[in-house]
Amino acid sequence: MPYPTKRLTFSDLCFDVYEDVYEPAEDSFLFAENLHIEAGMSVLDLGTGCGILAVLAAKKTDVVVAVDLNPSAMRCAKENAHLNGVCDRIAFLRGDLFGTLRAGVRFDLVLFNAPYLPSDAGEEATWIGRSWAGGADGRLVVDRFITEVLAYLKPAGRVLLMQSTLTGVEKTLRGFSQQGFSAYVVAERSLPFFETLTLIEANV
Ligand SMILES: C[S@@+](CC[C@H](N)C(=O)[O-])C[C@H]1O[C@@H](n2cnc3c(N)ncnc32)[C@H](O)[C@@H]1O
Question: 18: Cβ below 6 Å to ligand 1?
Answer without folding.
Answer: no
